[in-house]
Amino acid sequence: MGIDLILVGKTDSAEIAALMADYSKRISRYARFSVVFLPDVRNAGKLPVQIQKQAEGEMILRQTAPGDYVVLLDEKGTEMRSVEFAAWLGGKLTGSARRICFIVGGPYGFSGEVYARADAMLSLSRMTFSHQLVRTLFTEQLYRAFSILHHAPYHHE
Fold first, then answer.
1. d(CA 10, CA 86)
2. Is 33 annotated as a binding residue?
3. Does 62 show up as a binding residue in the annotation?
4. Was 64 annotated as part of a binding site?
5. Which residues on neighbouring strands pair with residue 38, listed in sequence order?
6. Could you tell me the EC number(s) of this protein (predicted)?
7. Does 129 belong to an annotated binding site?
8. Is 124 part of any known ligand binding site?
9. 20 known member of a binding site
């Protein structure tokens, strides 16, 4: 099974990109992992929010396929401790899905069609983070989950 992290827009910060690359390399020791960057919507600043979300949603949905388990990183999602997330991920990895797609949307969230396609929603916190920062926080948590599942000496509890 593979895991894809689908992101709307490029990563603007070299520091964030470097951290993501480091954690991506670490995750790849445990699973096939890739990061998919979708382009920013053209002239997004001049578009109404709903039109921007719709355009982003169409790009996101083109990246998913039947049989994928789609997880939105969303403020309305379920919050889990790291060990709970690891257990949840372990269950999904042994499931029937061919790929798990974790998706970070743009600054205004997801379109209704993307919410309808989602199999699950996860929240990293009740606090709001920039969608740029969420990328790094989530890749670190994904690596942490694999380290917990494999009893590696990364997570301490």
1. 27
2. no
3. no
4. no
5. 8
6. 2.1.1.177
7. yes
8. yes
9. no
Q: How far apart are CA 132 and CA 128, in angstroms?
A: 12
With contact defined as beta carbons under 8 Å apart, do 128 and 78 qualify?
no
> What's the average pLDDT block by block, 10 residues per block, for the chain (157 residues)?
93 92 97 94 79 93 96 96 97 92 92 97 92 92 98 90
Annotated binding residue 147: no
What is the percent of the chain with per-residue pLDDT over 70, rounded to a whole number?
99
Delineate the domains of the chain, giving CATH numbers in brackets: 2-149 (3.40.1280.10)
Query: Which position has the token pair 């699973």?
Result: 31
61 is in an annotated binding site: no
